[in-house]
Write a structure and sequence with these properties.
heterotrimer; A: 163 residues; alpha+beta; 3-stranded antiparallel sheet; globular; C: 378 residues; alpha/beta; Peroxisomal Thiolase, Chain A, domain 1; 35% helix
Chain lengths: 163, 388, 378
């Protein structure tokens, strides 16, 4: 097929644009509700302990994945922890929950809070990758106005010491 | 219980970033027709179909029902398997179980994705837990980038090491694979001068998003031998899809799910020395960093040995263990198909049908799938029904 | 086919707006199914989950329940379709020889999204979606075609609702146990002609789990195993306009495969009870015809005859069926779970006396495009 004919044919290809707009009302369930409430009311981060292996998980969840036993005991963990891994994101990113584009660059980090055996995701205040290392110590900075939203009740984690 | 099962046919589209002249059903039709032709079969010979993609990329609910038009599935048994990025490999495994069970003799496995139809990032971020993880996600790359930053810190790996993987895969695609999406070579310099997407990963470290489809035909032992004299026998399958929160899965420099899945697959296949016994590997490496950090998880090198491994050249086409002769995921990523393409490419290798990308004398091939919450699938294929 | 049994079942109480999250529901049924079978998670060597991205509002929706469904440490896969298809997948994995026991968990929460929009997404984006087709009005098209072709009346459809909501009173898991009359159904709010509110299933949250095992494993448990004697699945073509919506060919094909495997030649005589996917009242009549309980067009006469009532010779939906609780995906699995309870003699007030062979049925897609049929035996 000659390239001219191809061009003519492809300019005749139609497409239909549509926006798929399906709103959802996510249910936090019992465990995450406890976590969010404690953040909002007491500026405290809650984990949950497995009765069998004693591991503490943040955020709280109904079952210990290793033991398959229901967790029941909520334990507060420290607001201070260690960066286990991080990335500085430079590509545009829109939060699908709010429709707001995030200010770039932002640092996404996996943080092991003291007292927890699992990592939580949050962002760091520091956005220069040269100043961030795995092993770095960070502390949560809470928002004065809290609504029971993990993303905003904790504003970010600030560096307190290099690892 | 159960029976030996083999792959008897493989077909795929010529993958591109946008295939506007086809809709998803038509992409499926192309791949299916090519697979059937390669095996000398018609759709009437197919006893059951398993199909997979990621719904939100095309915004079609119950794709198994919609897709029947693509493969003339009128009055056929159909079901859908969806597991995120591992969908393609999960579909492959499902096709295997359909045939190995004895309930169906000839089974068609289809993976497809038309990424150009949607905003891939918007669709993918909803996999992140909405109340605890979604805000920081940074797209599919965020987790991979974080993981590599941890590997770099622990073992002194560099961005250049990851770039070598992109160079290898892109060159293979350019030189040998007419089906690949990206078919231009890149150099380490090209990769290192491309902008950061999410530190430490740059644009050219990452896979593209592609439109494409792949179809693989599985058959039980008796039928397989009748259909072709060189079936690709499934010797081992392994799968590890643990972890619900990304926080539980990341920050570990290697890939534990790949370690578990490959260990199980090796055991089933009777492989004790993977590096020596595997002739060619089609690995699901969504970024160059994976080609450094995950090699030890498969037992190809010692812990922390990723950089040395990639720099040694053993994984090039002329090396001892060629990886991704097809160009892998860094050259083509039509997500629902990608894991299945790895299985299909591995099958073509041991069937001797890999054309220009054939590794001479390949008898044992390994294919992996990756996705979801850092999950892995592994498939081992062989030109013989048993390893030796 | 080798002997594979169902050795454990569990269901949540189905309700409109469950306070539990997806993983909390999944864990509840996974744990209960294990406890009921006297097993622990170590006895399970692989799992199958059934979740749907649209219904859950999450891509890779199976990720939400990975840990909760016991899938963290064993091979697992996710069937994005009705729970009956999930059991089929679990069955094939055992028959392949590579696994001994499969835990199957299905869940969904209709409360988190907007079902009309979610089911609108089933339809073709280029030709059909813009028409505003959804689960209810597409069913209305099928109902009208079926009824006018065979002379089935709205009263006969209403009789299905009356029967099933009454049966639900004996089912502690059901969402809508109701004492209603045919007149109540006919007078209920019109949703899409001829489907009225009481002809339609509710929006539900819920989860269900079953455990499959090969024969050698059944000796570990004290409960009576329920054997899978036959299974079949089949799909019609896609566009509503390409199908004869009053036709049940796909169901007949699926049922034939299941019956042949199970050695059943006279379904109404050989089956003790049936749990069928009655998302709408007319569907029970159509599916009974497709399953061979009566001839084509005989659904109306069959419901009138009383044979399918509790106490009749072939009770259909003793649990109250999908009309009484419709957690998408889990609903098909619940048909299997209820059949198992019946065959074990554990169905309490809804027990069908002397139940020996049960038929469980699930559907997939719009207007029952796909069907899956199981024949179970005690």
């Amino acid at each position: 097929m000659s390239s001219q004919k191809q061009k003519a044919e492809s300019s005749e290809l139609l497409s239909i644009s549509s926006i798929v707009d399906v709103p959802y009302n996510y249910n936090a369930g019992y465990y995450v509700s406890q976590y969010l409430r404690e953040l909002k009311e007491n500026k405290r981060i809650l984990g949950v302990k497995c009765p069998k292996c004693q591991k503490v998980y943040v955020p709280p969840r109904v079952v210990c994945s290793q033991c398959f036993v229901q967790t029941k005991e909520f334990v507060p963990v420290s607001d201070t922890g260690t960066v286990m891994a991080f990335t500085v994101v430079s590509v545009p990113y829109t939060n699908p929950n709010t429709g707001e584009p995030k200010k770039l660059p932002f640092t996404c980090a996996y943080i092991k809070l003291d007292g927890s055996d699992s990592n939580i995701m949050h962002c760091l205040e520091e956005v220069d990758e040269k100043k961030i290392r795995a092993g770095m110590r960070v502390r949560a900075v809470f928002n004065e106005i809290r609504t029971g939203d993990h993303f905003t009740d904790i504003k970010h984690f600030k560096t307190i010491a290099k690892g | 219980m159960g029976r030996r099962t083999a792959i008897v046919g493989v077909g795929q589209t010529n993958h591109r970033s946008k295939i506007p002249e086809c809709n998803g059903q038509e992409l499926i039709a192309i791949a299916v027709r090519r697979a059937l032709d390669s095996a000398g079969l018609t759709i009437k010979d197919i006893d059951a179909v398993v199909v997979g993609n990621m719904d939100h990329f095309e915004s079609i609910n119950y794709v198994d029902m919609w897709s029947v038009l693509g493969f003339a599935g009128y009055m056929k048994p159909v079901l859908k398997v969806t597991t995120g990025g591992t969908t393609g490999s999960a579909v492959g495994h499902a096709g295997f179980y359909h045939a190995a069970s004895g309930l169906f003799d000839v089974v068609l496995a289809i993976g497809w994705e038309q990424n150009s139809e949607s905003d891939t990032t918007a669709a993918i971020v909803t996999h992140c837990e909405p109340l605890i993880e979604r805000d920081f996600y940074g797209g599919a790359i965020g987790g991979l980038a974080s993981q590599y930053s941890a590997y770099m810190d622990k073992y002194g790996a560099t961005e250049e090491d990851a770039a070598l993987v992109s160079v290898r895969d892109r060159c293979n695609a350019a030189l040998y694979n007419p089906y690949a999406h990206l078919r231009k070579t890149v150099t380490v310099g090209d990769v290192m001068s491309s902008p950061y997407i999410a530190y430490p990963l740059r644009l050219l470290h990452m896979c593209p998003r592609s439109d494409g489809a792949c179809a693989v035909i599985f058959a039980g032992e008796e039928k397989a031998k009748k259909i072709t004299d060189r079936p690709a026998w499934v010797l081992g399958v392994g799968s590890s899809h643990g972890a619900t929160y990304l926080g539980d899965a990341i920050a570990i420099p290697g890939l534990p799910s790949l370690e578990k899945a490959s260990r199980d697959a090796y055991k089933m296949a009777g492989i004790t020395n993977p590096f020596k016994q595997i002739d060619v590997a089609e690995l699901y490496l969504p970024a160059g960093s994976a080609g450094v950090a995950w090699m030890e998880s498969m037992g190809f090198c010692e812990e922390g040995g990723g950089p040395k491994f990639i720099k040694s050249g053993v994984t090039n086409m002329d090396g001892e263990l060629p990886i991704n002769p097809s160009g892998g995921v860094i050259a083509t990523n039509c997500i629902g198909a990608t894991g299945l393409i790895r299985i299909g490419e591995a099958a073509l290798q041991v069937m001797g049908k890999a054309e220009k990308r054939q590794v001479p004398g390949a008898k044992v091939a390994l294919a992996t799938g990756f996705g979801g919450c850092f999950w892995s699938d592994v498939t081992i294929l062989c030109s013989q029904p048993r390893l030796d | 086919m080798e002997r594979i049994a169902i050795i454990g079942v569990a269901q949540t109480k189905y309700q409109r707006n469950s306070p539990s999250s997806h993983d909390e529901m999944a864990f509840e049924v996974a744990q209960k199914a294990l406890e009921g079978a006297g097993l622990s998670i170590e006895d399970i060597d692989n799992t199958v989950t059934c979740t749907n991205d649209f219904w859950d509002g999450r891509t890779i929706s199976c990720m939400t329940i990975t840990d909760a469904s016991g899938s963290s440490k064993v091979p697992t896969t996710n069937v994005e379709g009705d729970g009956t298809l999930g059991v089929l997948m679990g069955l094939m994995r055992i028959l392949s020889g590579h696994f001994k026991t499969t835990l199957v968990v299905a869940q969904s929460k209709g409360s988190v999204g907007i079902p009309g929009l979610i089911t609108n997404a089933i339809f073709d984006p280029l030709y059909e979606r813009i028409l505003g087709l959804d689960g209810i009005n597409s069913a209305a098209l099928q109902a009208r075609l079926y009824m006018s072709k065979y002379g089935i009346t709205e009263e006969q459809c209403a009789r299905v609702s009356v029967k099933n909501h009454k049966n639900a009173k004996n089912n502690p898991y059901a969402q809508l146990p109701l004492d209603i009359t045919v007149k109540d159904v006919l007078n209920s709010r019109m949703l899409a002609d001829p489907i009225k509110l009481l002809d339609a299933s509710p929006i539900s949250d819920g989860a269900c789990a079953v455990i499959l095992a090969r024969e050698s494993e059944t000796r570990k448990i004290s409960k009576k195993p329920v054997w899978i004697k036959g299974v079949g699945h089949c799909s019609d073509t896609y566009h509503l306009g390409d199908r004869d919506l009053s036709d049940v060919g796909a169901l007949q094909s699926a049922a034939k495969r299941a019956y042949d495997m199970a050695g059943i030649s006279n379904p109404p005589k050989e089956i003790s009870l049936a749990e069928v996917y009655d998302a709408f009242s007319y569907m029970e009549l159509m599916w009974m015809e497709g399953l061979g309980f009566c001839g084509r067009g005989g659904g109306g006469a069959l419901i009138d005859s009383g044979i399918t009532e509790m106490g009749g010779s072939l009770p259909v939906n003793p649990s109250g069926g999908v009309l009484s609780a419709h957690p998408v995906l889990a609903a098909g699995l619940a048909r299997i779970a209820e059949s198992v309870l019946q065959l074990r003699g554990e169905a309490g007030a809804r027990q069908v006396a002397g139940a020996r062979v049960a038929l469980a049925h699930g559907i997939e897609g719009a207007c029952g495009q796909g069907h899956c049929v199981f024949v179970l035996k005690s």
